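User: Sorry, folds how?
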Amino acid sequence: MLAKRIIPCLDVKDGATVKGVNFVNFRNAGDPVELGQRYSDEGADELVYLDITASLEGRDTFVDLVRRVARNVSIPFTVGGGISSVEHVDTLLNAGADKISINSSALRRPELISEIASRFGRQVCVVAIDARCVDGEWICYVKGGHEPTSRRLVEWALEAQDRGAGEILFTSMDHDGVKQGFACEALNQLHDALSIPVIASGGCGAMEHFKDAFEIGHADAALAASVFHFNEIPIDELKRYLHNCNIPVRL
């Protein structure tokens, strides 16, 4: 069995790492490069950097941050936010990113997934899905969680996979920042429907929540932010805990 991955997520706004609750009420969490270095040293498997206002404000993800991270961090990292063309992907990869994450741009123009996969390989393309459960259905949102769409979580994830996505990064907007656990039922639905890896995001507040994401949700990786940013869960202790629960992780 492949090792489960632990992935700190750094939401970047105006050059600083921030963390909110339900996609609003942000507070500063530190310098994104320094945090990335710390997580790399502590044993994180990968990092995700998301420019959280890029798609809402119509800006490009800033390339300078990617260069700084690449110079200072030794583990793979994904960059997302405002990416809308293969040319932009090429720029980010040349700056040092290992993968890119697309969300709003993929829902607006699903062909972008295929274009990225065919040019750079599907392993480069992570399709992020922000969704909220409305009347029992998981509805996909765009523009940093500010605008609902007509797309449903599982059917959109399946289309993204068919178009060439290498991974799905699913964030439950209902669970984001509230620290009550991941959306394990929805994660399990994605696991049953897809053949590509699923990354769990949104809701982690305790080590047990990671265990649940892997055992109940069958996620391939789990992403978290505030519990790492504010030293609530040390990554090395988390991995030892998961290892003792017979969950395969890289120690």
User: Anything to note?
Assistant: Residues 32-42 form the longest helix (11 residues). Confidence is low (pLDDT under 50) at residues 20-26. The two ends are 15 Å apart (CA to CA).
